[in-house]
Structures are given as structure tokens and as C-alpha cells.
Amino acid sequence: MFVLHHGWRSSASRRVRLCLAEKGLKFESILVDLAKMEHHRPEYLKLNPNGVIPLLILPDGRSLYESGTICEYLDETYPEPPLRPGDAYGRAEMRNWIRYTDERIGNLIIFNWRHSIAKVAANMTDAQLAEAMKKIPSKERQQAWLRAARQPYTPEEEDEARAKLTMMLDRMEGALGEHAWLVGDRYSLADIGIVPFVKRMSEEIIPDELSDEKHPKVAEWWRRIQARPAFKEARIESFTSTL
Amino acid sequence: MFVLHHGWRSSASRRVRLCLAEKGLKFESILVDLAKMEHHRPEYLKLNPNGVIPLLILPDGRSLYESGTICEYLDETYPEPPLRPGDAYGRAEMRNWIRYTDERIGNLIIFNWRHSIAKVAANMTDAQLAEAMKKIPSKERQQAWLRAARQPYTPEEEDEARAKLTMMLDRMEGALGEHAWLVGDRYSLADIGIVPFVKRMSEEIIPDELSDEKHPKVAEWWRRIQARPAFKEARIESFTSTL
């Protein structure tokens, strides 16, 4: 049995849950509350010194982190149904899609963290914040925490992030004009990688851009994604629900 | 025949050249001068809309970018000698090593760009700089250009970057304590990925840390790396040479 340390709203966790659901793999669910910084507690760092979620504990006790790495491992180990293109060039394109998506997470964080981490961070004292900073390994994430705590994003910054996210839809539209899924005719980890982004765009950030008028191919892709049983099973639910 | 658009000093280019050399694959070399922003010129953007190097043109005319993606494609397509672990878990570890390395490139840029990009950027007018900014896709790289142009890194920032790079050696030392290469007993893309970092650390940034006293396992690994014929063939040469 797999054990997954994750968060319901965490984009990276959502990817891994989608992958597990597509493969029909069950897991024991252990929730990690980022707003409470549970991922930086000693007991969690013992499991994952990198202090990030998701973390997948394999049946043999070994563990893996990084959503892209975890999903590709699962596809190599449990090949049915395949979630990677059948040819090396397609797999290369898939990996570049995942990387492209990863590099844009900052634009999503602006809209995601205000539901959770920002509320907690804003109430921290300077001393608490300084202490929290020490535990955050990446400079980019430190900056995101500082902004959430002390200097909320400006309307201009939010507009810029919306524009960047819209450009992702433009790029998807181009790819989907050529084939049914982001890489060729097979649903793959490239699609799974971007689902948590599109979900958030669709419900709150830029819902109009998901229309048949603005991005028809993406809109159609998004309907097909949501119709997959794995989507429901992975619980890619609304941020404003009681989840 | 492969065609490689690359730079002799570019870390990502060095990885791909190492991989090609290990595989015994020849290529036509086309140099791209980042300091002259040749990677943002229309004729290059037609080849690679992402405006990054290296870019590998395959014998069939298709192309690939992103060093990690290119190297894994090459290993899948030309499996001898293998440059990835034989098992899925090992490959997952390898991918996490590459990602770990990628995420730390900012610490290397501080010391690399002063040899090239900083000299050009500092001489730009504000208008030229603003124009250049528009062409740089990632915020992190924009920031690096701005710093290179107008606000050279402080001694404190350089110290911090040196400390972060030293931590990479610490982590390598831990991994190499268990086996001959970063992932298990096979030289892999994880090793190749970090070679451009260690090369720069060894020659200028923190050479003392590469000693048998400070990091004996890494020092031994580094000697073995440099003894490989591919290292010479890939021309991982000194930044201060006339290269």
C-alpha cells in the first residue's frame, strides 16, 4: 500500500493523486497543512528532508518526492494504462511541458496562497516570520511567504500573473490544434501536470478565458479532463469549497 | 548529423556536449553568444521560440531544448553506453538530482556572468536594457540581467552563493559515501548534470572545498570525471582561458 503525504489544494499533490487514480492505485492519505508549516516540522523532515509535499512512500518503504518525478516513476513501474508517449521524442516533449508548467507556478501562488498561507503568515510576528524564513529552502518560496505576510500582491502584479496564465492557455490552444492531448494522441503526464493550473484558472482567476470563444480547444480539452473518472477520484475540487 | 547551437561556457550546453561525447555522437557546432543576445535574435527564435541554449537539431530535422530533456532523449535513443540507472527508482533519483542542480543555477550565475554578460549589460543604456528585458522570458533571468547591468552582487551575496554551492558538495559527499557515482554504481546524467557546477567551483569559486580534506569523496569523484575521455572532448575548459 502506498502512503501519500499531501494537501488537497496543493497543485503538486493534485498531479500525483491524478496519476494514482488513473493507474487505479490506492493509497493511505496523510494530510500536511502547509499553512501550519507542518512540512517543516522535525517529524516530517525526518521523512522528507526537503520539506516539500507531496511525498509518496512506496510499498517497500522507500520514498519519493517531486510530483513530476513521482508520476514518471509510477508510469514506469505500473505501465497500464500508459501515461507517457510511446516514443522518445514524445516523452521529451512531455518532460518539457511539465517543466514549462513548473516554471510558472509563481503566477498561480499569487492566487492560491491568499486562501490559506497568507492568512496565517499575515498574523505572524516579525520574529515568527524570521524563524519561518530559515526553514524555507528556496529563495523564491521565501519571497512568496514574505509577500503573503507583509506585502500583499498589487492589482498590477495580479494582472501580470493573469496575463502569464492566459499565455499558458494560448500555448495549449496551439498544441491542441494539432492533436487531442498536449503531446500527441495519448493523454499523458503533460496533461496531468497542467490540470491543477487550469482548474484554478477556470474557477476564479480567468474563467472567461476557458470559454469556447476564447480558447475553444482548451475548453473542449477541459471538458474531457473533467469527465475522466480519475478527476473525481483525485478530488480536484474547488478552492472555495469546504474541502 | 546532429547540429548543436550552444556556448562553450554555458552550463546547460556543457551537459549536452558531455552526453554526446559519452555516446560517441558527433555534431556540427554553431556557437550562440549570449552576451550579444544572439539567442534573442529573430533568426534564432525561429529555430527555438524559447530563446535558450542549447538547442539540438536532430538528424531528422526536429529539435529539442532543455539540457535535462535532451540528455534523457539521447540516452533513450542511443542506449550505449547507458547513462541512466537500470531501475525506475534509480532513474527517479537521477531526475531529482538534475532538478536539484537546476534549481541552484542562480548561485553559479553570480560568478559566471561577470566574465561575459555583465560586461555587456553594464554598458547598455537604460533604453537598451529595457528593450533587452522584454526579450527575456523568465523573471529570474530578467533579475539576473538587471543585477549584472546596474547593481553588481555584493560581497555578502557572493558569500551566500558560495555557501549554497558548498552545501551542494556536502550533499554530493553524502551520496558518494554510499556508492561510486551520485546514483548507484553507474555514471549517469545526475553526474553529468552537476559537472559544470563543480568545474566552476574548482577553478575559481571555492577551490579549497574540492580538496581531499574538505570533501574527499567529491575530490575523488572529480578526478575520475576529469579522467574520462568525454570530459576533454566536450571541452569543459577554464572560464579564464581564451576559449
The CATH class of the largest domain in chain A is identified as: Mainly Alpha
Are there runs of chain A of 5+ residues with pLDDT below 50, and where?
none
Provide a count of the helices of chain A.
12
Question: Strand share of the residues of chain A?
Answer: 5-15%
Overview of the structural elements:
- Two copies of one chain form a homodimer.
- Chain A is an alpha+beta fold.
- In chain A, 56% of the residues lie in helices and 7% in strands.
- The first copy, chain A, contains twelve helices and four strands, in the order βαβαββαααααααααα.
- Chain A has helices at 11-23, 42-47, 67-77, 88-102, 105-112, 117-122, 126-135, 139-150, 155-176, 189-205, 216-227, 229-233, and strands at 2-6, 27-31, 55-57, 63-65.
- In chain A, strand 1, helix 1 and strand 2 form a beta-alpha-beta unit.
- In chain A, helix 1 crosses helix 10 and helix 4 (88-102) runs parallel beside helix 10 (189-205).
- Chain A is globular, with a radius of gyration of 18 Å.
- The two termini of chain A are 24 Å apart.
- The model of chain A has no long low-confidence stretch (mean pLDDT 92).
- The interface between A and B is medium-sized, with 24 and 24 residues.
